Amino acid sequence: MSGNTGEAVTAAVLVIGDEILSGRTKDRNIGYIAEYLTGLGIELREARIVPDVLGEIAAAVNALRERYDYLFTTGGIGPTHDDITADGMGLAFGLPVSHHPDAVEILKSHLGDRLNEARLRMARMPEGAELVRNPVSNAPGFRIGNVFVMAGIPSVMQGMLDEIAPTLKTGQPYLVDAIEGDGVKEGDIGGPLGEIQRAFPGVMIGSYPRSRDGSFTTTIVLRSRSAEDLAAAKARVTQLLGELRPTGSRS
Amino acid sequence: MSGNTGEAVTAAVLVIGDEILSGRTKDRNIGYIAEYLTGLGIELREARIVPDVLGEIAAAVNALRERYDYLFTTGGIGPTHDDITADGMGLAFGLPVSHHPDAVEILKSHLGDRLNEARLRMARMPEGAELVRNPVSNAPGFRIGNVFVMAGIPSVMQGMLDEIAPTLKTGQPYLVDAIEGDGVKEGDIGGPLGEIQRAFPGVMIGSYPRSRDGSFTTTIVLRSRSAEDLAAAKARVTQLLGELRPTGSRS
C-alpha cells in the first residue's frame, strides 16, 4: 500500500447493469469489495446500483467521485452493445472516448485473428485513462481520476481489485471484535447496550439480529481504532450478555 | 394488485446499515426485491446502500422517493441504539417521530411483560405513518407517503413485502426470454447482436457473460412488452447463436 495515514480513507461502489436491477443476476461484488476495503482500512461509505443508461451512470459517477476518495465501478465493460460504461465515464468527466493503444495491443496479442470490432470495444476508454491489468481474462479495466472501472464478472473483478490494491492509500484499519449473543434477543439487550455505547463514544457498537432455527438471536460487533477502548467495551458487553443469555426454552 | 396500467411503474431500494458497508453482512434483500418487483411488473430503477447516519438516510430517502413511484427500505428498525431508520424518515419528511399507538398495542399483545423501553423503540414512526404488518416476528414496518420501511432480516422483510404487494399499483410486466450461449463468447456475438438490437428497438437485448469451468460463455436475455417483437427477435438471436456455437475445443 502506498500510505497508511491516520485519517479515514473513504470509498464508494457503483454497480452498473440492468441485469442486477431486474433481479436476474444477483450482485456479489458489493459484499466482496466491502470486505476487501475494510481489510485495507478503507471505509466503504456508500454503494449504488444503476441501469445501463448513460445519463444515470454519469450522474452517479459524478456524485460519488466528488464525495469520496475512491470510486470503484463494476460492470458494462464487455464487447456488446449494452456495455456502455466507458461512454458513461467519458460523459461524467467531459472527456472523449477512444481506443487506448495499449489496450488494443493487449487484445491483439491475446486474441490474434479473433480480435473483431466487437472485442475492440473493450479497448475504448476516456482519454487519459490508465489501464488496470486483468489477470483473469486479459481485457483490461481502467482508472480515470479517482475512479476504478472494473468488470462485472466476479472472478474478473476480483483479479482487477488485486491489481489495484497496492496503488491505494489506506487508512488505519479498525480493530473489530464480535460477540455472539447465543439466543439473546436485541430487545433484551437494547437498553443497556445503548448505555455502553454512550460510555464508549470511540467504539462503534452494532447489534445485528438474525433468525436462527425459527427464533432470533443477535451478534454484537464492536469496532474501534483504540485497542484499549475496544477491550473495555467488550468486557462490558460480555458481562451484559452473560447476564442475559437464556438458560432454558424461553422464546 | 390495485391496478395494471400501461405506463411503467418505477421503484428504488434503499438498504440501511453499517454492517452491509463493512462487508460483515452480505445483502440479500436487493436481489430478492428486484426479482419480486419484476414479477409484479414494477421496474426497479436504482438501489443504494447507506450507513447508519441520520443525514445520509434522509438525503437518500428524499432523492429516491421524489424520483420513483415507490421506495422500499430495509434495515434499522430494531430495538437497539443503532436502529435509527424511523428518525431518518422523520428527518426526510420533516415530521415528528413518536410511538404509534397501534404498533404499541401489537408489541404489547405479543410481548407482554417483555415489552421494555428498548422494544418500545420499534413502535416509533413518523406521524401519519401506516403500519405494515409483520407476519414473521410481529414488530411492524410502516408506510409513509410512497416509502415502505421494512426490516433488514431477509425472512422478516420478505413477509412484509408479501403484505405490501397487494397495495401496489403495477405495470404491464415485461415478457422475458433467455437463450443460453452454450460456450458462445460475447466478443463473437457482439457485432451481429448489436445489429439485432437496432432492428428491434421495442426489445431490450442484454448479454450477460460469466465464467464456466475456466472458460467464458454468455446468456442472451430479451425483454419486451410485445410478444410478437419478442418472438421475432428471439428467432434472429437463436439463428445467430446456432451459427456461432463452438463445435470443438476452441477456447
Automatic annotation (TrEMBL), chains A, B:
Residues 12-171 form the MoaB/Mog domain. CDD domains: cinA. Signal peptide: none annotated. SMART domains: MoCF_biosynth. InterPro entries: CinA, FLAD1_M, MoaB/Mog-like_dom_sf, MoaB/Mog_dom. This is Molybdopterin binding protein. It comes from Lutibaculum baratangense AMV1. The lineage of its organism: Bacteria, Pseudomonadati, Pseudomonadota, Alphaproteobacteria, Hyphomicrobiales.
